[in-house]
C-alpha cells in the first residue's frame, strides 16, 4: 500500500501551548506533503501517577521502534514533586547530545547581525544526574557526575557535527580552573578528540568568559561543546541573541534515536489562546527531516517559514506582531 513507504514519527504534543504548536507542525507537514505518518502519545505531567513509571513504556517503545519523535514542552514542577519528564525521556532513550543552532533570522531585529553559533550539550550526566540529598537539616549535597565515556562521546559528536556541517571551529566551554577533576576530565576528552580532527580548529573557553563574549562579540564562536548544566544555560543565552526561545530549534540525538523538541516551556500565560509562536517546534521538526534525509521537504518548509518572518505581516505577539498561531501557520502554508 502507499503508506508502506511512510516513516512513522512519534508525536508528543505536551502541556500548555504544546497541543497548539503541534497542530501547526501537523498542518504544515501535511501541506508540504511530507511522507510521514504520526503516532501520537500523550505524555503529561498531569498523567503522572505516584508509584508508576513517569513515562509510559508504550511511548518509549514507540520512539525506540520508529527512531524519530517530536515533543512539545512538558510542565516540570520546580523545587519539589517528581523528576523532570524531559530529563527522564533523555535518560531513558539515551539521547546523549543536544544540538541547538542559533543563527540570525532575517527580519528579526536583534543587537547583533550575523550570529551563527551551534551549542552541543552533553545531555545525560553532569549536575542533571539528579543525585541530591540532605545530609543534615540545612545542608544539602548535589553530585555532578562526569564520565570519560560520556565526555568523549559528546566531544566526538561535536567534532563530527562540525565536519559534516562544514563548520570551522569547536570551542570547549568549561570551568576546569575550579572543577579540576570533573570539568578537567571533560576538557581533557575534548583536547584528545580534537587531535583526531586536524581540519577543525579547536579552542577552549572558561564559561564566564564565553558568556561575556557571547553578549559582546558573538561572532567569535562557531560550535560550542559543553557539559549538561552549562549547556542548558549557554544554549538559552545563545537563543536570546537571535530572537529568543520561540524561534530556536533543538534536536536530541542518541545512537539510534532522534527527538526534536522546542526549547521553550509550556507558556502557561498564553496557553489555549491561539497566541503561541510555533516556529521553534517547526524548525526542530525541520532538523528531524534532515536526519531522515528528507532534505527537499526540509528546505521548502524552512524557506516558507523564513519568508513569512521576513515579510513581517503575520508575526505572533512574541515577535511584535498581532497574528494568531493559526494565522501565522496559514501564512506558511500559503507560501508552500
Ligand atoms: P516558558 O518558556 O514557558 O515561558 C516564558 C515566557 O516566554 C512566557 O511569557 C511565554 O508566554 C513565552 N513563550 C514561551 N514559548 C513561547 C512561544 N512558543 N510563543 C510565544 N511565547 C512563548 O517558561 P516558564 O514560564 O519558565 O515555564 C513554564 C513551564 O514550562 C514550567 O513548568 C517549566 O518547567 C516548563 N518548561 C518545559 C520545558 C521543556 O519541556 N523543554 C522547557 C522549559 C520550561
From TrEMBL:
The keyword Electron transport does not apply. Its cofactor is Mg(2+); Mn(2+). GO terms for molecular function: isocitrate dehydrogenase (NAD+) activity; metal ion binding. Residues 8-332 form the Isopropylmalate dehydrogenase-like domain. Gene3D superfamilies: Isopropylmalate Dehydrogenase. It holds the Pfam family Iso_dh. PANTHER family: DECARBOXYLATING DEHYDROGENASES-ISOCITRATE, ISOPROPYLMALATE, TARTRATE, ISOCITRATE DEHYDROGENASE [NAD] SUBUNIT ALPHA, MITOCHONDRIAL. InterPro entries: Isocitrate_DH_NAD (IPR004434), IsoPropMal-DH-like_dom (IPR024084). GO terms for biological process: isocitrate metabolic process; tricarboxylic acid cycle. GO terms for cellular component: mitochondrion. This is Isopropylmalate dehydrogenase-like domain-containing protein. It comes from the Eukaryota. Belongs to the isocitrate and isopropylmalate dehydrogenases family. Keywords: Magnesium, Metal-binding, NAD, Oxidoreductase, Transit peptide. The lineage of its organism: Eukaryota, Rhodophyta, Bangiophyceae, Cyanidiales, Cyanidiaceae.
Amino acid at each position: 500500500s502507499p503508506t508502506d513507504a511512510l516513516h512513522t514519527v512519534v508525536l508528543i504534543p505536551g502541556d500548555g501551548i504544546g497541543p497548539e504548536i503541534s497542530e501547526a507542525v501537523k498542518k504544515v507537514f501535511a501541506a508540504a506533503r511530507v511522507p510521514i505518518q504520526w503516532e501520537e502519545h500523550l505524555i503529561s505531567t498531569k498523567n503522572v501517577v505516584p508509584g508508576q513509571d513517569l513515562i509510559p513504556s508504550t511511548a518509549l517503545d514507540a520512539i525506540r521502534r520508529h527512531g524519530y519523535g517530536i515533543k512539545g514542552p512538558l510542565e516540570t514542577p520546580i523545587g519539589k514533586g517528581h523528576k523532570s519528564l524531559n530529563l527522564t525521556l533523555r535518560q531513558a532513550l539515551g539521547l546523549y547530545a543536544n544540538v541547538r543552532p542559533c543563527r540570525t533570522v532575517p527580519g528579526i531585529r536583534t543587537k547583533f547581525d550575523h550570529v551563527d553559533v551551534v551549542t552541543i550539550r552533553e545531555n545525560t550526566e553532569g549536575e542533571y544526574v539528579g543525585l541530591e540529598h540532605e545530609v543534615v537539616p540545612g545542608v544539602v549535597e548535589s553530585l555532578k557526575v562526569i564520565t570519560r565515556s560520556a565526555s568523549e562521546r559528546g566531544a566526538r559528536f561535536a567534532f563530527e557535527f562540525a565536519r559534516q556541517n562544514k563548520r570551522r571551529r569547536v570551542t570547549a566551554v568549561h570551568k576546569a580552573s575550579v572543577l579540576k577533576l570533573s570539568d578537567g576530565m571533560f576538557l581533557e576528552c575534548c583536547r584528545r578528540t580534537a587531535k583526531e580532527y586536524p581540519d577543525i580548529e579547536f579552542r577552549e573557553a572558561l564559561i564566564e568568559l564565553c558568556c561575556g563574549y557571547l553578549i559582546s562579540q558573538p561572532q567569535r564562536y562557531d560550535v560550542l561543546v559543553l557539559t549538561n548544566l552549562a549547556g542548558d544555560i549557554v544554549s538559552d543565552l545563545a537563543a536570546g541573541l537571535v530572537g529568543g526561545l520561540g524561534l530556536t530549534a533543538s534536536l536530541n540525538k542518541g545512537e539510534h534515536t532522534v527527538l526534536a523538541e522546542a526549547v521553550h516551556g509550556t507558556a502557561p500565560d498564553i496557553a489555549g489562546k491561539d497566541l503561541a509562536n510555533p516556529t521553534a517546534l517547526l524548525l526542530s521538526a525541520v532538523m528531524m527531516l534532515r536526519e531522515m534525509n528528507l532534505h527537499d521537504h526540509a528546505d521548502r518548509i524552512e524557506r516558507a517559514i523564513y519568508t513569512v518572518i521576513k515579510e513581517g505581516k503575520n508575526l505572533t505577539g512574541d515577535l511584535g506582531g498581532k497574528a494568531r498561531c493559526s494565522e501565522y501557520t496559514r501564512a506558511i502554508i500559503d507560501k508552500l
